[in-house]
Amino acid sequence: MRRLVFLLFAVVVSALGFWKLYSSQNQHINASPNSSSLEVFLVPDLAQKSSNLRKVQISNAQKQVTLFSHDGKSWQVQERYGFPVDMPRLRQLLINLADAKRLEQKTDDAERMKSMDLHAEKATHLKLQTASATILDIFLGNSKNQNSYIRMADEKAAYRVSNILVASAEPALWLAPEFISLAAEEIKSMKFIPQAEKAHSEKAHSEKEFTLLRDKSTKSISLEKLPWNRDSDQAKLAEPFKALDNLAIVDVLPISQLTGKPQKFAVTIKNWSDVEIDIKFYDMQPSFLTISAQYAPEDKNIAASFAAMEQINKINKLGKDWAFRIAPQRENLLSKRLEDMLLAKQ
Question: By C-alpha distance, which of 342, 291, 281 is closest to 321?
Fold first, then answer.
């Protein structure tokens, strides 16, 4: 009986061995001629090579962006006057590329590649370069089901690879987004200053300066001076206080390019740490703004906290050389007129 069990066990083991061998051979026979390159990293050792990376070029049929670095640490956007790069975005692109593997060779037929967006009108061309060599030259197509279609620049065939590989050729999307962030409850007051020549116009009574105040204990918001025989709209009073919460940069200009441009309007924001932030919008299309900050306590004997000075220095460092464009919705929140804060006349 034991001998029979042993023989049966040997037959099963032998059968499994032959099945594995057959399966492996069958896969090899049925694989494409280039199957030896499958299930390998798209860019071997990219993690190690990235320390020597100095340039990333991304282009499509409409746009191009060049990200460059002199030392491999600080990166700039060439098409935006050398403004700092959004490093988390660049880092994520490199991680996705480093993790990507070739899964399957698809086609080398130009017509069929159109369905993968790997033709000239749709493909994104991505190049990674060191100071002396190109370490990746690739065309990116569309992505689906956590996979992407690509074609190496020196190969005719398209491949399906693991990971979502997407790289925008829009320069503005590569700008470091850090700008300013003040939650509504951090703001003590907001002073709205209309365009100078309109403030004294007889027809512009609704465009006079006005100030919104926030009560720290009740959190209610009010107009510092309510016009005679008018009531404020409480919902409208709260809207501008939301404008600076995670305020992001949409585009940039060197501040020198605003020379001679007329001021459109200005807003002075003060927080509970007595940091006063001046934002000035300029009359141009699209509208750009400048920003600066200072410590402005009511009691001059009170020294600024470390956090307040850190905030002031960060804003002034950023605003010293640059003008910014923000999303139109945020600009609308900061361009309120006095009339916008009031209920309709009865």
Answer: 291
Residue length of the chain: 346
Residue 294 dihedral angles phi and psi, to the nearest 5° = -150, 165
Alpha carbon dihedral 222, 228, 231, 234, in 10-degree steps, equals: -20
User: Rounded to an integer, what distance in angstroms lies between the CA atom of residue 215 and that of residue 41?
Assistant: 59
**Cα gap 292→316, rounded to integer Å:** 5
Kindly tell me if the per-residue pLDDT of 14 is higher than 70: no
Ordered by start, the domain boundaries in the chain are 38-174, 184-341
Tens digits of per-residue pLDDT, 120-179? 899 999 999 999 999 999 999 999 888 999 999 999 999 999 999 999 999 999 999 888
Is the full-model pTM beyond 0.70?
A: yes
d(CA 315, CA 119): 44
By the 10 Å C-beta count (0-12 exposed, 13-18 middle, 19+ buried), 144 is classed as: exposed
Q: Do residues 66 and 80 lie in contact, with contact meaning Cβ atoms separated by under 8 Å?
A: no
* Residue 105: CB atoms within 10 Å: 18
- Give the angle subtended at the CA of 309 by the CAs of 304 and 311, to the nearest 5°: 130
DSSP category for residue 144: E
139: its two tokens: 């065309």
109-136: pLDDT as tens digits: 989 989 999 998 999 999 999 999 999 9
Residue type, 12: V
The C-alpha atoms of residue 97 and residue 137 are separated, in whole angstroms, by: 12
CA–CA dist 190, 276 (Å, integer)? 10
Long-range contacts, stretch 293-302, CB < 8 angstroms, 24+ apart: 293/319, 296/270, 298/274, 302/274
* Phi and psi at residue 79, to the nearest 5°: -75, 0
Identify any residues that bridge with 267 across adjacent strands, giving them in sequence order: 192, 279
Rounded distance, CA 207 to CA 340, Å?
10
